[in-house]
Amino acid sequence: MASVTSLTDLVSKQLTSALSATRPETSADPLLRRSDRADFQANGILALAKKAKANPRDLATEVVSHITTGDVIKDVEVSGPGFLNITIADRAVLENLAARYADGTGRLGVPLAENPGITVIDYAQPNVAKEMHVGHLRSAVIGDALRGMLDFTGEKTIGRHHIGDWGTQFGMLIQYLMEHPGELAPPSEVDGDQAMSNLNRIYKASRAVFDADEAFKERARKRVVALQSGDKETLELWQQFVDESKVYFNSVFDKLDMEIRDDEIVGESAYNEGMPETARLLEEMGVAERSEGALVVFFDDIRGKDDKPVPLIVQKADGGFGYAASDLTAIRNRVFDLHADTLLYVVDVRQSLHFKMVFETARRAGWLNDDVTAHHIGFGTVLGADGKPFKTREGETVRLKDLLDEAVQRAAEVVREKAKDLTEEEIQERAAQVGIGAVKYADLSTSPTRDYKFDLDQMVSLNGDTSVYLQYAYARIRSILRKAGDVRPAAHPELELHEAERALGLHLDAFGDTVFEAAAEYAPHKLTAYLYQLASLYTTFYDKCPVLKAESPEQVENRLFLCDLTARTLTKGMSLLGIRTPERL
Ligand code: ARG
């Protein structure tokens, strides 16, 4: 199905040619945006006037003389210091929307990117044998939303769940398991909760022995060496920990209504084999140097206390590799084997320094450059009601699972209150969609870098900028469409638009442009803001314009059509963010 050019694009093009017809020697962007005064306002003439040393109002008048009003632009006026106020013909708005509506591909007429690239997104990366916490929630939710938006633009995305599945703590765990066989039930026999409680128990027990018993400590240390040298029996036990953890991770991702592909779970350990090569390459190129036995990279602008340079440690003096080496090796894999041109890392902002050093090292090595770039999407902290990092009353980190369960429970209260005619099963199903949606939306609607307060009452509120508000808007439209019975939605471009219809229509037209912008800036909050505004504009439209009781049959069909397109746009936008829109609430 043919894709639809947005009205913004159409008008922009007309303005650009009018600008260059006016001053062929100077190029300028018309800087078009939606406006309250007219449909669009163009502010670009001010900059052009400056460059061309002309009076902006005179120049604007000249530009207007080069614009042909007609099918699309109904009217254009000079205003203020040299702005253009542009009004679109009603027919053009409706025809544009009708074309979107007719797109059978589910893309609402939004074209695919002309030159899509390959983006590897590193997100949802919990740690083996450890509980997941709110930080892992943010990475999963933001990463999944970025992926949804990028996929929609036509970008090819590859997920990488860089789970923490390697490190010295495994020596302790494996040694303990060897000495206490049978403590870890096979993954096939446990559910997520049992898996995590097994792991917790073993973690605590092995820690206690480790701290109390010098001989065990020594055996655990030797076990690390055995693990690193690939000893078969040791690796098998390590794999058991990983598999048991995956049962738990998957149960949480399930609860989060998020699909995590097993082949995209590629943890730190996957890069073990490549690490010596990474070190060798960096040393040969002179990017890394030996310092006190370790292989390190220095940076002029990264210094610690006493102004001493803080290096990135590629290889420790004892020959061991750590977090940096695995990330550097992962970059080589993602760039050279997966052919990515963009690498995204959705990781806590507190790891910024690590990524700054890793990316700079990779750039010096030539693995990253102007065409192959890496970006750390650093997210802020989830705070409790007291404005401090979220903790339980006992001062422990809040378990992600408990948090999600509580959100679903609160949502169940809201759903039960609203819909009296639902069965208990239906309530539970909706509650999951509302509760998880609420958690995701609250996370996505603030810019990733900012901290936010985890406030369930606010998150499941029916009023304000929440997913529940959007889900209700959607469900209300679906109910109107059901009530319409045999009357089908249909566009009638010959009709005159009410002001509230125009505002809604122009906003609907901007969906594709918004997703592209939000995807390019890695800013899911731009899409949530768009959707919130869409629901608000719809509410105004619904208040001002009777739908089923409109004055003529054409008017009824046309308004049903606006309703339906709004519903489709809402559900599409929400789905890109990983949020469901139930048919009834
Ligand atoms: N597992 C790490 C953590 O829980 C996050 C991993 C981030 N990804 C990466 N490539 N370093 O903090």
TrEMBL record:
According to its UniProt record, where is this protein located?
A: Cytoplasm
Catalysed reactions, semicolon-separated: tRNA(Arg) + L-arginine + ATP = L-arginyl-tRNA(Arg) + AMP + diphosphate
Report the enzyme's class at the first EC level. Answer: ligase
- Which Gene3D superfamilies does the annotation name? Arginyl tRNA synthetase N-terminal domain, HUPs, Isoleucyl-tRNA Synthetase, Domain 1
Q: What is its main location?
A: cytoplasm
Q: Motif 'HIGH' region at which residues?
A: 126-136
Q: Which residues form the DALR anticodon binding domain?
A: 470-585
Arginyl tRNA synthetase N-terminal domain: from which residue to which, for each copy?
Answer: 9-88
On the tree of life, the source organism's domain of life is Bacteria
Protein name, please? Arginine--tRNA ligase
Its taxonomic path starts at: Bacteria, Bacillati, Actinomycetota, Actinomycetes, Kitasatosporales
Gene that produces this protein: argS
